[in-house]
């Protein structure tokens, strides 16, 4: 059994051992008789046996992998799929648990918790040998990894002006793509899965350094009624922006925005129907139909994007024989895609960009299906170019859907709602390997093209969020399209944000320290 990994030198039956023709005949005869005993009612002309003379691995590109060290070959090859399934299940459960936890206890604490979990358990994982322990720790390591990325984007979006949200999302995604490119280089330099696991896990301990750097989201603090803490965060933001408002001025503006006197005790921001609603998915379903409808559309878009992104990533590396080069190229192309999104978001908005680029992706996949249906192979240059176009497009739309999901949901359930969409998408993505391995390649491309068409329809039905302030409450999110857009001259107001004004307006701190609604930080 030739695995594209590393040679298993300690195998009890190396393929380089000398075997006489008689030994070979006896070995295959025993295997055939064993198969016949297990399947007495069948007598096929060909069948697959266990590794009669052992196995070896190809170590052209890797010194050692987890599969080669554990001997996951022949009858044990299913262990690889078990580890992958454990990781995917961890992602699913993590989206439910940590998404809701981030809305409950705050983004900063959950971010630090997840980072430390990755550092400790990720470093421990590479030294485990027992299969059940490997699966359990792999599950725990993968729990919350998608939420970790979501928290970074959501926290940034909640602390910048409305017109800067697209830029922040694009820059975050570009950093992610740069990290993917560096992963190919680090993997090539290490060549050993233990070294790679340590190099990619231990640096997460740097999150401890962020404790004094990362601020809790002021929006989340206000939504939870913690105005004193929100005021302290905004004062530090003002200091970074070289402003000097007083604590009382900031607190007065926050109380005014919340609609209660300065001396009254702070309370969690809930109004009307919100007071009786669970701030989660059940509350959205029962009391906020328009918000529920948009959440369903976001979930469909997220699912389509994830499946197409994953499938195009797994398809295109087949064009390259060198796995490092293939991974680097598919990752590097995301950088210009993210830069293009940064430009187009300001010009045409979220909805037209998402629907238009997804249309191009669906067209590319359908064209690839037609080319393959005419008898060309997947390594044909035309098919490779079309898959590259699809990967480029999904890199753009994935960035846009992250932004739209954050802008359509209010602060109390923002992380929970995006986690719910990610949960459904990850669940559906389990079937992506089946799409990639369909009997005829053109069938997989046709199916992906049809999924792209569903994504186009869902994206077209989402409301435009460009130039709209982030909703702070469920009521505001429910009536999002009824709220007027804010022009640049009006200061891009949000519902419960604080906008630090310029130095020239500080001559009267009591009257113009804060504008009542937008927060801005230096990034």
Automatic annotation (TrEMBL):
Positions of the Major facilitator superfamily (MFS) profile domain: 44-467
Residue ranges spanning the membrane: these are 83-102, 109-128, 134-157, 169-190, 196-214, 291-312, 324-345, 357-377, 383-403, 415-436, 442-462
Cite a single Pfam family from the UniProt record. Sugar_tr
**Intracellular or extracellular location(s):** Membrane
The topology of this chain with respect to the membrane is:
Multi-pass membrane protein
Q: Give positions of region: Disordered.
A: 1-21, 471-511
Is this entry keyworded Transmembrane helix? Answer: yes
Molecular functions (GO terms): transmembrane transporter activity
PANTHER family for the chain: SOLUTE CARRIER FAMILY 22 MEMBER
Name used for this protein in its record = Organic cation transporter 1-like 2
Gene name tied to this protein? Oct1-L2
């Amino acid at each position: 059994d030739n695995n594209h990994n590393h040679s298993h030198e300690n195998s009890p039956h190396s393929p380089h051992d000398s075997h006489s023709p008689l030994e070979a005949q006896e070995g295959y005869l025993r295997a055939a008789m064993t198969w016949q005993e297990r399947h007495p009612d069948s007598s096929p002309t060909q069948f697959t046996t266990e590794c009669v003379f052992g196995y070896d691995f190809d170590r052209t590109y890797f010194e050692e992998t987890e599969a080669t060290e554990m001997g996951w070959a022949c009858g044990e090859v299913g262990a690889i799929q078990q580890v992958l399934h454990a990781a995917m299940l961890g992602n699913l459960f993590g989206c439910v648990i940590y998404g809701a936890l981030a809305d409950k206890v705050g983004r900063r604490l959950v971010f630090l918790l997840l980072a430390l979990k990755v550092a400790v358990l990720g470093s421990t994982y590479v030294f485990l040998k027992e299969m059940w322990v490997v699966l359990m720790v792999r599950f725990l390591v993968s729990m919350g990894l998608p939420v970790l990325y979501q928290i970074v984007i959501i926290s940034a979006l909640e602390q910048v002006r409305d017109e800067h949200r697209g830029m922040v999302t694009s820059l975050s995604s570009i950093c992610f793509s740069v990290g993917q490119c560096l992963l190919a280089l680090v993997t090539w330099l290490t060549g050993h899965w233990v070294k790679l696991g340590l190099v990619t896990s231990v640096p997460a301990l740097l999150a401890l350094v962020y404790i004094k750097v990362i601020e809790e989201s002021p929006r989340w603090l206000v939504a939870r009624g913690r105005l004193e803490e929100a005021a302290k965060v905004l004062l530090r933001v003002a200091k970074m922006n070289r402003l000097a408002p007083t604590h009382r001025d900031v607190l007065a503006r926050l109380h005014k925005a919340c609609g209660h006197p300065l001396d009254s005790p702070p309370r969690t921001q809930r109004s009307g129907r919100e007071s009786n609603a669970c701030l989660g998915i059940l509350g959205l379903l029962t009391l906020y139909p328009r918000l529920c409808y948009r959440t369903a559309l976001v979930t469909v878009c997220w699912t389509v994007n994830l499946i197409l992104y994953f499938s195009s990533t797994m398809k295109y590396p087949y064009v390259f024989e060198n796995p490092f080069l293939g991974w680097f190229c598919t990752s590097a192309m995301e950088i210009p895609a993210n830069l293009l999104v940064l430009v187009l978001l300001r010009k045409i908005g979220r909805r037209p960009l998402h629907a238009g680029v997804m249309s191009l992706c669906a067209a590319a996949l359908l064209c690839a299906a037609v080319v393959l249906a005419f008898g060309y192979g997947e390594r044909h240059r035309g098919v490779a170019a079309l898959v590259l176009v699809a990967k480029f497009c999904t890199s753009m739309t994935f960035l846009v859907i992250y932004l739209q999901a954050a802008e359509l949901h209010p602060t109390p359930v923002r992380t929970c709602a995006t986690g719910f969409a990610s949960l459904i998408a990850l669940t559906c993505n389990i079937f992506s390997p089946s799409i990639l391995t369909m009997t005829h390649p053109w069938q997989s491309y046709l199916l992906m093209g049809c999924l792209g068409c569903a994504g186009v329809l869902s994206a077209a039905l989402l409301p435009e969020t460009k130039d709209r302030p982030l909703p702070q409450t469920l009521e505001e999110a429910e009536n999002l399209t009824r709220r007027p857009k804010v022009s640049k001259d009006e200061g891009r107001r949000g519902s419960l944000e604080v906008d630090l004004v310029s130095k020239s307006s500080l001559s009267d701190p009591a009257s113009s320290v804060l504008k009542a609604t937008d927060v801005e930080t230096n990034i």
